[in-house]
Amino acid sequence: MKYGYGGYEKEYDTDINKLIDNYIEFNNIIIITYLDGSTQFRPLTIENLNQIEKEMLDQITTRRDSEIFSLAKKRSKQYFICTLIFSFNNLISLIATFINIREKNTNTTIIQILIDLICLNYLKSNLNQFVYYKKLVDELKKYDIYLDLKQYYETENKQLSIDINDVDNISTKDLKKLQKMIKFNNKSEIK
Asked: In the chain, what are the domain boundaries?
């Protein structure tokens, strides 16, 4: 888990020092890393592992039920549209700059270059925001698929081979493939 309940707005994540990012088992110790970068050590026991995994499941369930998913999708679309508009505007502005350079219109060219630089800076900012929200939406989808898979396996009284601690290391695409494969197998069993 790389994002808290507030996503980008860390000031909304008042419990960020309590949200588990991941854990590592090492020499009979569990090293827990939280989203704020702090660490905690616990003895390596089955009870502690189960407790940590339960805390992580509670975290992603709470985040799933929050409004962050719809907010992130909405903002991702907004920044994508802004990026497209500014890209188009910048392209027109660059063409105008080249025309002014060709016609040796120096005063207009300097002003146009300054405008281009400002637009490029704003475009970069929007692009960074779009990439951030795209990653956030991707992570939210990934954990949503994981929760669905976990729920399915629990109803079938089976053990899911993917640990919650490993979800960050698996691509959303691979989880979707697994989900589709399970749905396909269920349809073939019904026939």
From this structure: 10-65, 68-190
Q: At which residue do the structure tokens 């991702």 appear?
A: 76
CB 165 within 8 A of CB 152: no
Dihedral of alpha carbons 66, 72, 78, 82, sign: positive
Dump pLDDT digits (tens) for 43-53.
999 999 999 99
The string of DSSP codes covering 13-43 is -TTTTTSEEEEEEETTEEEEEETTS-EEEEE
pLDDT of res. 44: 93
- How many CA atoms within 13 Å lie on the side-chain side of 181? 7
| Cβ neighbours, 10 Å, residue 125 | 14
**Around Cβ 143, how many Cβ atoms within 10 Å?**
25
52-to-118, 145, 150, 159, 162 alpha-carbon distances in Å: 48, 20, 16, 18, 15
The pLDDT mean for the chain works out to 78
Given a contact cutoff of 8 angstroms between Cβ atoms, the answer to whether 155 and 76 are in contact is no
Check pLDDT > 80 for residue 34: yes
Phi, psi of 84 (to 5 degrees): -60, -45
